[in-house]
Amino acid sequence: MPPQYPGFTIVDAIKAAGPAPDLGAYGFDPEHTIEPPVNFYCDVQPCRAVFSTHHGTKPFQTPENPQHTGARRFRKWNAGEIQACCDNIRSSFPVDVMHITPLENYAGLYEYFDAHDLYHLGTHNLWNVIHHLHFENQYYILNEAWMSSQVERIIATNEVVREKLRNFDPRVTNDILSMFKPEELGDLARVSVEQQGALRAIFVTQYMRLSRGGSVRRE
Predict the structure, then answer these.
(1) Is residue 145 in some structural domain?
(2) Full domain range(s) for residue 184
(3) Phi and psi at residue 8, in whole multiples of 5°?
(4) Most exposed among 42, 46, 95, 176, judged by the fewest C-beta atoms under 10 Å?
(5) In total, how many domains does the chain have?
(6) Mean pLDDT of 57-68
(7) Does some domain include residue 146?
(8) Are 31 and 92 in contact (CB under 8 A)?
(9) Are 188 and 144 in contact (CB under 8 A)?
(10) DSSP for 112-141, written as a single string
(11) In terms of C-beta density within 10 A (0-12 exposed, 13-18 middle, 19 or more buried), how is residue 104 classed?
């Protein structure tokens, strides 16, 4: 899912970005300058392509009768299409996505996609997808660090919250967040639905520390 910014939603961002520009208007042929030559899709050995092959459970595919870049029709995805693809990949491969790093060149895309998907979906489009996922990861990492610091502060300063956490019994209460009132959580009560899973995990970690007699603060 895309990051959530106060007062500025992803819908606002997509509307502000608008459709992708006509690259031909800038004096060059986008098929030749954005997409790699046809041998990029043909002269390749089967690679990991974890998203396309579902970790090797599906075959690595190459395009049938690929056309040379000059004969292909290429359409650059707009912001909404890139985000939709990112959301689909993140929901299907949540663990793999969190380890994505910036790529040095198009060849690095074979770590995630096979030649068939690169050709038909667009190598440049999927390049944008991978780097957008990396950007989202940086946001989530920062947001999780903020949530951790807030949880630690609340537990350290609020005896009611601390006592509720000590009395938490996972055999009785399935959702640890349900134990707390919104006013007890403060700003944490307003985190997005997508971030609540990470927030639950942070509270469970602190519960385990307290139950072992440890301190609230992270070691």
Answers:
(1) no
(2) 158-211
(3) -150, 110
(4) 95
(5) 2
(6) 91
(7) no
(8) no
(9) no
(10) T--HHHHHHH-HHHHHHHHHHHHHHHHHHH
(11) exposed
